[in-house]
Design goal:
Layout: E1 17-21, H1 26-36, E2 40-45, E3 61-65, H2 71-81, E4 86-89, H3 95-99, H4 103-109, E5 114-119, H5 134-141, H6 143-146, H7 159-182, E6 188-193, H8 194-201, H9 203-210, E7 229-233, E8 239-243, H10 247-257, H11 274-285, H12 290-297, E9 304-306, H13 317-322, E10 325-328, E11 331-334, H14 358-364
Parallel strand pairs: 1-2, 1-4, 2-3, 4-5, 5-6
Antiparallel strand pairs: 7-8, 8-9, 10-11
Helix pairs in contact: 1-7, 5-7, 5-8, 7-8
């Protein structure tokens, strides 16, 4: 993997040990984020998964294969947990307890452990044992209802539930628990439910709704209802995004679009007129190609950006100047973020084969080798 980032062993979490046990999506993404910041992350994989090709979510992690259906596998897992700062698990409630790796057993072995539990519904409640995915969790939190057009909710990838309401909240929770333990406290369980994390992401919109300032989907300032905040199709079929909320930025956008003399646009915040004005903005933008609009608007205070696809975004001059993407074997992937001045992010290590680091990790962590 080509990179200009510092070597492994740097980063603000260098020296912090994380164990990842099971789960898909948000659990591995949490581990990836912590590994991107320099943590020593090991994931416990099943022997039967050998040969499975890991995804980018396994970068900056080492893999240990343990058979958790055997006493030897459980004891080795507990020994690793005993040397860790944090554990991430993503099973349904009760599975880790049945394995003998639940919070009681783990905290008995390591009283300062931050024990992270990642689920959609949380560890208790009427739905705790039900299956689900991102779309179900954000449906329950109110987030899905608020995203989309007037006609129907839009599925926002699995960004809001899995990665935003799940992984980012888990990473924050684990770091808080680690800090608390290092300050002389005890370890604890971090119960991370994607329904709750996605609800917290909606805090501002719940407040606006409660104050009577948020209407039906697709009619509001930040959901595509405003003529100065949305995505518009260009003459070549490509798209641009504008977000000129502040009066000065709105005035500049009007000028660039040739609408500054049109007095109907003076009433920027007249929501009754937004549908008509948005249609007129769309008509103006449809007269030129995306490249022509970039030449006119990009870099100005009109709050403009082209809508780029997976191939275009890494090649944009701003992305190139900052090194926002890295070349990997499978193509482009986002570079670690955020950035640190004194403890810079390490260069990402590519995902490894299942079980590739078993002997190495056991030796590094001072855990006896598994008896054959």
């Amino acid at each position: 993997m080509a990179s200009t980032l510092p070597a492994q062993g740097t980063g603000p979490l260098a020296g912090t040990r994380i164990v990842l046990a099971g789960g898909i999506g948000p659990g591995p993404f949490t581990a990836m984020l912590l590994g991107d910041l320099g943590a020593d992350v090991l994931k416990i994989d099943r022997p039967q998964d050998a040969g499975r090709v890991p995804t980018v979510l396994a970068r900056n992690q080492r893999s240990v294969t343990l058979d958790l259906k055997t006493p030897e596998g459980i004891e080795t897992a507990l020994a690793l947990i005993g040397r860790a700062d944090a554990l991430i698990e993503g099973f349904r409630p009760g599975v880790m307890e049945r394995l003998g790796l639940g919070p009681e057993a783990a905290l008995a072995r390591n009283p300062r452990l931050a024990y992270g539990r990642m689920t959609g519904w949380g560890q208790h409640g009427p739905l705790a044992q039900a299956a689900g995915h991102d779309i179900n969790y954000i449906a329950l939190s109110g987030a899905l209802h608020a995203i989309g057009s007037a006609d129907a909710p839009a599925v926002p990838l699995n960004l809001v539930g899995d990665f935003g309401g799940g992984a980012l909240f888990m990473a924050m929770g684990l770091l808080a628990a680690i800090l608390q333990a290092r300050a002389g406290g005890r370890g604890q369980v971090v119960d991370c439910a994607m329904t709750e994390g996605s609800a917290v992401l909606m805090s501002m919109f719940y407040a606006l709704h409660g104050a009577g300032r948020w209407g039906a989907r697709g009619t509001n300032l930040l959901d595509g209802g405003a003529p100065f905040y949305g995505a518009f199709r260009c003459a070549d079929g490509k798209w641009v995004a504008v977000g000129a909320i502040e009066p000065a930025f709105y005035a500049l956008l009007r000028e660039k679009l040739g609408l500054d003399a049109d007095l109907e646009f003076d009433a920027q915040n007249d929501k009754e007129r937004w549908p008509e004005l948005k249609a007129r903005v769309a008509e103006v933008i449809a007269r030129r190609t995306r490249e022509q609009w970039c030449e006119l608007l990009e870099g100005s205070d009109a709050c403009f950006a082209p809508v780029l696809d997976f191939d275009e975004a890494p090649l944009h001059p701003h992305s190139q100047a900052r090194g926002s993407f890295l070349r990997a074997e499978h193509g482009w992937e986002p570079a670690p973020a955020p950035r640190f001045s004194a403890t810079p992010n390490p260069a990402p290590r590519a995902p490894v084969a299942i079980g590739a680091n078993t002997e190495e990790v056991l030796a590094d962590w001072g855990v006896p080798a598994i008896r054959k």
